[in-house]
Amino acid sequence: RYGTTVEVLLSLNTYIENPDLILVGDKIVLPGG
């Protein structure tokens, strides 16, 4: 599903603070995994 605007902003913020983590939907996954 597509995240809401808030979820997208939180995902972007999480990615900026933790470049090794990518927030996908409701779960955080490691790149390549």
Can you give a write-up of this model?
This protein has 33 residues and is an alpha+beta fold. It has one domain. The protein has 1 helix and 2 strands; from the N terminus they run H-E-E. A two-stranded antiparallel ribbon has the order 1-2. The longest helix is centred in the middle third of the chain and has 13 residues, at 5-17. It is flat, with a radius of gyration of 9 Å. The mean pLDDT is 67.
Q: Give the number of helices.
A: 1
The parts where pLDDT drops under 50 for at least 5 residues are none
Q: What order do the SSEs take from the amino end to the carboxyl end, as H and E?
A: HEE
Task: Tell me the total number of β-strands.
Answer: 2
Shape: flat
Provide the fold topology.
Elements: H1 5-17, E1 22-24, E2 27-29
Antiparallel strand pairs: 1-2
Q: What would a concise description of this structure say?
A:
Helices cover 39% and strands 18% of the residues. The chain contains 1 helix and 2 strands. It has one helix spanning 5-17; strands at 22-24, 27-29.
List keywords for this structure.
33 residues; alpha+beta; two-stranded antiparallel sheet; 1 helix; 2 strands; 39% helix; flat
